Amino acid sequence: MGYRIAVAGATGNVGREMLAILAERKFPVAEIAALASSRSAGDEVTFGDGQITVGNLEEFDFSGWDMALFAVGAEATGKHAPRAAGAGCVVIDNSSLYRYDPEIPLIVPEVNSEAIADHSKRNIIANPNCSTAQMVVALKPLHDRARIRRIVVSTYQSVSGAGKAAMDELWNQTRSLYHQGETIEPNAFPVRIAFNVIPQIDKFLEDGSTKEEWKMVAETKRILDPNIEVSATCVRVPVFVGHSEAINVELEEPLSAEDARELLKTSPGIIVLDRREPAGYMTPMDCIGEYATFISRIRRDRTVKHGLNLWCVADNLRKGAALNAVQIGELLGRKVLKKG
Asked: What pTM was estimated for this model as a whole?
């Protein structure tokens, strides 16, 4: 037996990754549907060793389908996710639309898998923000061992997190700088991204933070612990794929860097690469195509009583989006649907 699975947004970066990961992980698929807007209906996308024709999301009947992985914008999600959920198909949504709804679980399987039980309230499960997902995977073992009191994180987020148009803009601007007289004005970003960093992701809020920074605070509290204080600074960098984070944690109990390193080495979803030598750490270029969240530069912060610093890197299209959604689907299959 297997599951009837629909992937909405199958022609986008994350949707294509969802299809690839479903095949790579040999998800028990009885039937699969690739869906997109009417503009992309009729196109073909890859699934495993074959091609499947993209259907029109607007016209798709979700009755009889087990789960739907959504990788479309909030507007389309708001229209079609309730329709799918109402037809009995469990929606796993990658947009921000439902992340802060108390009736909808926000899940990272390595961190709060028990929340899957709450999916039945609305038949929808939310996937967290890409930068939050990798951070909570890294911090869950430390929190379980020594209780995290405060997190200060600075992110270095790749342009793929802003979609294909943003990736094209980085490529075109970089190329234009090597052609005298050619200028590509910013469109996806407020200023030029090529050979630059931009200390703004999403819009500014009244307190001076950006919405991306607010998301990291709110989602970390929902997923990991509402009592943790979080301060985030989110920066867009001229990297195509792979988010990096410099994370500082203040713990309630003592935990040495050596013990933290050994603890993280045995924790699910994590690979530690931490040699104190040139190239003895992970970079975003190295993590492309990988499932794991990589941890490097583990060291004590001597400015607080129980403090640690670490460097965290992950493929944002995978663990930050598509992989986490597929892992939620696997969890749903094991714990709830039990057809695989």
From this structure: 0.95
